[in-house]
Amino acid sequence: MEDVLFQNVSKQYDQHNEYALKDFTLQVNNGELIVIVGPSGSGKSTLLELICGFEDLTQGDILIEGQSIKDKLPKDRNVAMVFQNYALLPHLNVYDNIAFGMRIRKESKEKTKEKVEWAAELLELTPYLKVKPKKLSGGQRQRVALARAMVREPKLFLMDEPLSNLDAKLRDTMVQEIKALHDTLGVTMLYVTHDQVEAMTIADRIVILNEGSIQQVGIPKEVYQNPNNLFVAQFIGRPALNIFTCQKTTEGITLENEISILADVTNLYAGQTYLLGIRSEHIDCVTEGEHLEATLIKIEYLGSESLLHLQYKNCKFTVKDYSDRNFEIGEQVRVKLNVAKAHYFDRVTQQRIMED
Ligand SMILES: Nc1ncnc2c1ncn2[C@@H]1O[C@H](COP(=O)(O)OP(=O)(O)OP(=O)(O)O)[C@@H](O)[C@H]1O
Fold this sequence. Notes:
20 strands
């Protein structure tokens, strides 16, 4: 069942400015965890502000359970937001911070106590209820912020880069905790981040924004394996997708105007130039039958694999090597592209040319 519906939501802060958000249309299912990713300035915060009611829509509508919320006051929208800076009240202890919103809404003491203790238990905060926020770690403070949002029992949970103030290790743990919490509560969540790894880990579906427009919506695997355009292909996945220029010839594909590879790509036009995108795990180091011989300029050891940074003419690309072969900087490395895994993009529109 659909829970939240965005219908052509657009926002222009000033009529002389570009749209901060353009025609944002999305159906969010009940209990879904949607992650919104995009670079700085792509419209992520604008979207959250429109949902909360901190900003007015220029066009479009937002419906929660079939009801438009655009004319409702922020307090009546039944959404709870968790901010990156936690926004805890320093003079109140953990219990009072969690209970704060319930007290403002004049909920009974008994109900408040029951809900605070329920949230504290779920988030393992029970031993800290009497403690002030400054005595807590970053992860614990973030949990207090989550608990405060949970006790409101909102229809929609909004998370604005909730983990960006935590160190990498704690962030990994908290991502799993938020995912588990989401699964336990079964709530609908919109989670904003600019960290695409975090997005891939936690999302049921990812929405990729750029310059205010949706570039693609899909489950993590789908956007990684079948990006709609060059922006998505390069934004999702580390290392970024390798890009070669290529030409379709009568024999196959010529890479960088030099090397012919046998690729059976029927929907490209002969004589035209395209961009070929291929992931680093789809290029193999080989000893014979190579496509390219490139110079090794850098090696990153990642544990189970090495990331080789290679250069062929002006084109830099990366290859994941899973062997325990020893490489030396400056050495010529032979590689073969797994062309069946390549994607082709129009040079001008940067849209992916869909395979047959
Ligand atoms: N209050 C405002 N007044 C005018 N323009 C604004 C306002 N808030 C945001 N913008 C503009 O709207 C666009 C989208 O900004 P927004 O903050 O939504 O992006 P973002 O994806 O959240 O970026 P970041 O990751 O840096 O927080 C930007 O061009 C920004 O300059």
